Amino acid sequence: MAELTVPERVLKDAARLLEMEKWTQSPVFRRRADDLYLRLRGAVRGRGRMTQLPFKIAGETLDFSAFQIKSKDLSRIFAHCQSCVFMSVTLGPEVDRLLARVQKEDMADAVLLDALASSEVELMCDRSEQSVAEKLKDGQYMTMRYSPGYGDVPLEVSAYILSLLGVRGDTGISMTDSFMLVPVKSVTAMIGISDRPELRARSCADCYAAENCVYRKRGAFCGVQN
Amino acid sequence: MFRINGDRAIIFDGAMGTMLQNRGLKLGDLPEALNLTAPEVVRSIHEEYLDAGADVILANTFGVNRYKAAKAGCSVKELVSAAVRIAREAVGDRKDKYVALDIGPCGRIMAPTGDLPFEEAVEVFAEVVRAGVEAGVDFILTETFTDLYELRAAVLAAKENSNLPLVSTMSFEESGVTFFGTTVESMVMTLEGLGVDALGVNCSLGPKQLVPIVDRILAAASIPVLVQPNAGLPSIVDGRTQYDVTPEEFAGYVKGFVEKGVSLIGSCCGTTPAYTKLIKETVGSLPRRPLKNHRRTCVCSPSKPLYFGNGVAVIGERLNPTGKKALQAALRANDMDYVLREAIREQEQGAALLDVNMGLPDVDEPALLERAVKEVQAVVDLPLQLDSSNPLALERAARIYNGKPLINSVNGKKESLEKILPIAKKYGAAVLGLALDDDGIPDTAEKRFAIAEKIIAEAEKYGIPREDVLIDCLVMTVSAQQNQAAETLKAVRMVKERLGACTVLGVSNVSFGLPARPVINRTMLAMALANGLDAPIMNPGDAGMAETVAAFRVLASQDKNSADFIAKFSGYAAPTAQPKAATKTSPTPELQGLAHAIAKGLKNDAREATKAELAEKKPLDVIEKVLVPTLDAVGRDYESGVIFLPQLIQSAEAAKAAFEQLRAALARDGTSAAGARTKIVVATVHGDIHDIGKNIVKVIMENYDFDVTDLGRDVPPAKVVEAVKATGAKLVGLSALMTTTVASMKETIELLRKECPGVKIIVGGAVLTKDLAAKIGADVYAKDAMASVKAGKE
Q: For residues B280 and B8, what is the distance between their CA atoms, to the nearest angstrom?
């Protein structure tokens, strides 16, 4: 039996991704999630990196001197920021292997494991974000966490983030030619450091999945970053 | 000429990146570009390390490869030749100083986790090696690797393109494995097999954290060991990375390493010439410990090293189509999932390594064996035994294997020795020697022993250590040659005792032609184990044989305190006539018919219920009267929101278990259901490497009676067209996950329209919408797996 049980938040998050919120109270669902979560934790070799860089905004361009990001959305969200935290988080490549294996064992398990892993990486992001929050000085505030691919921020920006953070490639993350992050459960993101309180919830307008989103169709919200 | 062996430690230089950052290298810039833009900066750093006492400096080539060079707008050749020229200038006329070509990971992740194919990786590193050789380096260092597979590509590239000494290191985490899960022992086995001249560990940790890792390397390695720790663990203070170990502390640890037997020593991130100076002062005049021979018979995958002779190692035999109709049919239908499921089951049943044989008369065996090895290694972490009578198949499989494989087999024939041994040598494999030669299988133990002796001697001539040769004394069929069992057992004992070689036997042949074969098999197994057999090739799912192994391990004192035995048999009840089916999931309620099992997604129940149905009905009747209506009902429940995706899939998995039984029954009858099924080719498009969505569609469609050809992920348009033409499918399903790969979906559709007019194209994936699907020319946008089924049926 599992010595480790899936944290409530990860379970709820995974259930939400699978549209199975009602099932979190089912003992069968929980037992299955516990077993898979134990295997997941055995495969996780979590790694997070972050660094802070100053920038200037000119029109729709954020100028970090070493590189520039052109984005209407970012220049709006980071309007009151002078610097930005770049972060990367990954669960590591063994999780990819585990996902591949469980897909051959049992596809239903694989779908649940995939959702658990997504929730786990989200939890890691939140912890990184928390550590940024703890270091804020008086009068400093964080913007929402924004990842390449949201809004009009090109996926290519991940390449800048990874080369910034990866002296000798030690983010543990690589990118394919089509800008996919490998390992699969990896995140790159930016958080602006603002001089005033910011609205931290991401809106559907910035989400690439908005058009097909089942939650939006139901008039609900997916809960990401809410 | 650089010599790795000598009477005192060789001192390597320290960090280059840290020094360059201190001198103004900007974050995110390629440090090697400075070879062209600021050679004097690079040269002055080399000079400082040489002045501090380094014997070896690493040319500033760590990150040079075609990908990074292209981004920096220059060529590999110019970056490498400038780096080596600068290093040589720094050395000047100093005596006994050497320049290494420094090769780090290429920054991309190898397939199957990432998208870098093995041969492309070899070529990427080969390009750097050729440039280094031309520029005149003294030796090659491949360092800081965390993926054993990528390192293996780099080592092969170095070996195939130079005769220079080669040193290889990996970076480990405190847990004792690399980021990619490679163990210390697997690294040592693989690198020694490939014939590197020295190996070790660098970067990622400070000297203190490296102590247990260095101890393990020294306990496993028989060649010189290099250690290059960081200056402790990093912390970021005021935006700058700082390390917590002073040069004095560092030198203290280094002294300990050299006293234990490390003979090449340097330092990595965060260090400066001050560290090198103290290293030189502390260990520069210490005598070097002589090398110890730690060689043992072993094979490995990246995460699972296996030492033979430590206890019984069961070699799973089921990945071999000989005599297995269902596996033959699966391979002919290109269904690798069947192989993978068998591999997973063998591991769950306790196999320590898996034999992989893809020999079928009408298939391209080299290609199939290579593919099977890649796919099995992607999901099962056991070491593999590559099994073929075709040397080309063995070579291709050994080349792309990740770790140190066991080659099955070589024998005493001249031709076999000449063909197989060079493959084992080049790719660092252990090899299984069969005790037969041009005169066939000798009928006495003494003659088989003589052949074993000859095979080991021949292997040593090729530079293969005798520990890397295992011997199979060959089991004969006892119903035909009754006295031969005793000769086999005697030969096993002789080989074990007199040659010290580890032994392997394929046990099950012994009972051919007799009733109650399992009884003979498990008794032969017990006798062979008692005579010194290390690794039986057997079906790990054979309960009787598995019990014999478990009991033997207790009696031979291999299973300490009988812990495994007690765990296995704690709920033991005397055997009954009905063997219990192996179950993985929680205990299932009593069987309630196939329809119920599928609707509830109970896989084991579905399997058993199908067997029960088959006792009364024909397979096709079971499919049409039970399976299909049940699946239709499940599909309707999903569409109306009564059940959700995981439950839909669970039902499909249960149906799959049923289908496996039904297909086996059809194969026995000689009938086939394939003719009636609708064919569809599915693929995740080129550039897309995440395919769980497509795999869900596949599982669901298969259980709605579609004949699915799955091309996998990252599939180029031409390959889709080729498969459509080969199968004659009228349906194609394409999946794309990223906005960036919708373009390659469009390309695939355009090519299909041109080459295969009339096919219906269904598309899906996270970023697609109905409009986008129409815009790129697809016929149908399917929002999920059930929508694909529907579209396919229309």
A: 11
Does residue A58 surpass a pLDDT of 80? yes
Counting residues of chain A whose pLDDT is more than 90, the rounded percentage is: 53
CATH domain B298-568 topology: TIM Barrel (3.20.20)
**What kind of fold does domain B16-217 have according to CATH?**
TIM Barrel (3.20.20)
Query: What does the alpha-carbon distance between residue B746 and residue B80 come to, in Å, rounded to a whole number?
Result: 40
The answer to whether residue A210 neighbours chain B at the CB level (below 8 Å) is: no
Given A47, A160, A177, which is nearest B28 (Cβ)?
A160
Closest approach of chain A CAs to the CA of B759, in angstroms?
A: 26
Average pLDDT over residues B397-411: 98
Evaluate if residue B590 carries a pLDDT over 60. no
| % of chain B at pLDDT higher than 90 | 71
The reported pLDDT for the residue numbered A224 is 52
Give A141's Cβ-side CA count (13 Å radius): 14
- Give the CB-side neighbour count of residue A219, counting CA atoms within 13 A: 0
Per DSSP, the three-state class of A47 is strand
Same-fold call for B16-217 versus B298-568: yes
Domain A8-199, CATH among 1.10.15.40, 1.10.10.10, 3.20.20.100, 3.40.109.40: 3.40.109.40
Beta carbons of A112 and B646 less than 8 Å apart: yes
Amino acid identity, position A26: S
Query: Cβ–Cβ contacts within 10 Å for residue A19, how many?
Result: 15
Q: Among all chains, which residue has been given the structure tokens 């812990």? A: B563
Distance from CA of A150 to the nearest CA of B (A): 12
Residue type, B345: R
pLDDT for residue B636 is more than 80: yes
Q: Give B688-730 as a DSSP string.
A: ----HHHHHHHHHHHTTTEEEEE--SSB-HHHHHHHHHHHT-S
Contact B756, B724 (CB under 8 A): yes
In chain A, residues with a C-beta closer than 8 Å to the C-beta of B645 are 18-19, 111
CA atoms within 13 A on the CB side of B631: 28
CB B405 within 8 A of CB B375: no
Lowest mean pLDDT of A147-161, A192-206, B753-767, name the range.
A192-206
> Cβ–Cβ of B114/A176 closer than 8 Å?
yes
Nearest to A93 among B29, B180, B695 (CB): B180
For domain B677-793, the CATH class is alpha beta
**B641 pLDDT more than 80:** no
Q: A151 near A71, Cβ under 8 Å?
A: yes
Q: Does A123 touch chain B (CB under 8 A)?
A: no
For chain B, give the percent of residues with pLDDT over 70.
96
A67 touches chain B (CB under 8 A): yes
Q: What would the two tokens of residue B738 be? A: 């990223």
DSSP string spanning B12-80? Answer: B---SHHHHHHTTPPTTS-GGGHHHH-HHHHHHHHHHHHHHT-SEEE-S-TT-SHHHHHHTTS-HHHHH
Q: Exposed, middle or buried, B448 (CB in 10 Å: 0-12/13-18/19+)?
A: buried
Of A18, A67, A104, the CB nearest to B340: A104
Contact residues, chain B, for A153 at CB < 8 Å: none
Q: What is the CATH T-level fold of the domain B594-669, as seen in this structure?
A: 1.10.1240
Whether pLDDT at B481 is above 70: yes
Q: Residue B577: is its pLDDT beyond 90?
A: no
Domain boundary assignment for chain B: 16-217, 298-568, 594-669, 677-793
Closest CA of chain A from B178, distance in Å: 9
Residues of chain B contacting residue A20, judged by C-beta atoms under 8 Å apart: 644, 646
Q: Does A34 touch chain B (CB under 8 A)?
A: no
